[in-house]
Amino acid sequence: MAASSDFLAHLYVGTFTGTGFNPTGSFEADGKGIHVFELSADGALAEKSVHEAGYNPTYLCTDPDKQFLYAVNEIHDKDGFILTYAIDQTTGSLSLLSPKVSCRGTACCHVSATRQFVVAANYLSGSVILFRRQPNGLLTDAVSFDKHAQDSGSGVNPGRQEAPHAHQVALTPDGRHVLVPDLGADLLRVYQLLDDPGTLVPATEPPVAFPPGSGPRHLVFDPTTPSRFFIVCELLSFVIPCTFDPETQRVELGVACSSLPADVKVGVGGDSFCAAIRISSDGKNLYVSNRGHNSLTHFRVGNDGALDRKGTTPVGGIPRDFTIVDPFVIVGNQDGGKLVVFKMDETTGSLTAVGEPVACSWPATLLAVQP
Known about the structure:
The chain is an all-beta fold. It contains no helices and 32 strands.
């Protein structure tokens, strides 16, 4: 059945289906795979289908043409996988294609795609891997692989930083570079992505050092200023505005801004840990999720990229991930089994809840795909 006239986007929600990990320990989950919802112009969510996706499909992406969806299998005691699905352009439903490919590392936690390649991060084993895409969406065997030195963990937070932990593979807006926040080493690693022969080449500049014990996790580029990005540091719960020069491959760090009130303990033995970071399409409003404080923090972005924290909004559970489909912000409450929808004020960017939470067991990642 075709999408209704007030259709805004398909929302894909990957879930924890087995053992998962929070900053404070492990848990057992029984999610069902990948859920497909329709988001309407009034902010309503309607579930349309559920698709089996192996063990812990905890991160998803599409190719730039939105024909295929790629899902990681985050497995902690053996190598993970990437699964490929064809997307039905009318209903948003998924068709699993074979075969899946090995990530050659444990706890594969993030994936990104260009028209030619798919790149993934292995958190526990501290590595990144590159695959070439075929015309049918399937992936070849790995064409490039880089394992980070296992003694490069910063050790400042011994429970989390005993070794390198690649947490994201973020493509620059021009697709020529991949930025990899390394939570375990307090570094941002930069790679050049060479189309021919298909290789990840470490930048000539050394990896960028972040404040000790900060734990850089995820970043997002400013849609209005391609050289600017914002990176959230999970362990110390702050955001740093940064700039990237693709010609010199240099990263410059700005002034950090905390995502939490001053009385919330962070770091070793902390009470809250950041997770996801997203920015509105006009580049004026930046949001970060706080696990423990269980909230979203709203920052106003200045013309120079400086951040002004405006406040926090309770979300009712542990917000491992969220996504933005202007004017809506959709939050996945991992422990509460709920999706919560908020509406952004078009002037201030403040959030107001819309409707009632929608059931979804163990949401781990949210991906909105708009026509």
